[in-house]
């Protein structure tokens, strides 16, 4: 099928019968880049204005080629333009074939400008971390799958998520993908050193262990790179501002650990250590500081919780000394009279 002829027929149909029901028709993909072959389809979507326009969405097979008249509402385009979905290039690349009104075209062009704006580093880093986190699910599937085909499919899904994470890390986007994906990524400055070889291993290795090993390495390298960029991007905040009033609440984590150790409750011990450690790590990162306090999780022994209690007390003492050294006040109230004075001051 001549794709130019099909494009013209679709546009004629919309202009004749759906001019008031369709806001925008946008073309993207291989046809725009002149990279079609005998099996290529026509990548386009339209923005419906009415229920009748929405109902125009359909799929069909023409001369053995599948086609999709994809209806994409304004609301979803807004999400894509904000980079909440990793397909922003379907807005930034290609061309508008039809617009119902000048207002519709202006609205689309505003979204195109927004999608093209990659200046918000903090937002892109956040989206990058989120895409990286989603890849761990596929990594788990690759580690537990029972056949080479299942392992490889999970690995490819993982690489797809990692690729989106890396594009976001570079404040960029995947344009072409698939056979062009590796070249697109390697043209970006922030890419794990072993990415090219490891991704090829996933595609070409012929045994489960090699694919799984490549998955582990490429995930680890990407994770380290994103963590490094996140760390470097943090603007250290004042310790006193970050920790003021924090210890007064979090002291209960120590108290829960002490009580659980004395009553032989390993469940509460570990949950409390986890919750407190995560909160403390987050606060220290805000200040650009390392966590040099005793590792309470390393002291965990379900058969001897007294070791954990001793370590938690050392941790608490060092943390109180840390607060004092940074001039962070701790509000302590002893007795009923002091409590009354405090309440009267509120």
Q: What would you note in describing this structure?
A:
The chain is α+β, with helices and mostly antiparallel strands. It has 3 domains: 3-116, Beta Polymerase, domain 2; 121-233, Four Helix Bundle (Hemerythrin (Met), subunit A); 239-345, no CATH class. The chain is built from 15 helices and 5 strands. Strands 3-4-2-1-5 form a 5-stranded mixed beta sheet, with helices on both faces. Helix 6 packs antiparallel against helix 7 (148-169) and helix 9 packs antiparallel against helix 10. The radius of gyration is 28 Å and the shape is elongated.
* H and E order: HEEHEEHHEHHHHHHHHHHH
Strand segment tally: 5
Number of domains: 3
Shape: elongated
User: Structural class of the secondary structure composition?
Assistant: alpha+beta
**Could you name the CATH class of the largest domain?**
Alpha Beta
CATH architecture of the largest domain: 2-Layer Sandwich
Q: How would a crystallographer describe the biggest sheet?
A: 5 strands, mixed
Instruction: Estimate the mean pLDDT confidence.
Output: 93
The total of helices stands at 15
- Poorly predicted segments: none
What proportion of the residues is helical, as a percent range?
55-70%
Strand order of the largest sheet: 3-4-2-1-5
Beta-sheet strand percentage? 5-15%
What is Rg? 28 Å
* CATH fold label of the largest domain: Beta Polymerase, domain 2
Distance between the ends: 78 Å
Under CATH, the homologous superfamily of the largest domain reads: Beta Polymerase, domain 2
Tell me the layout of helices and strands.
Layout: H1 3-17, E1 22-28, E2 43-48, H2 51-54, E3 58-62, E4 65-71, H3 74-81, H4 89-92, E5 95-99, H5 102-116, H6 121-144, H7 148-169, H8 181-186, H9 195-204, H10 208-233, H11 239-243, H12 246-263, H13 266-286, H14 306-325, H15 335-345
Parallel strand pairs: 2-4
Antiparallel strand pairs: 1-2, 1-5, 3-4
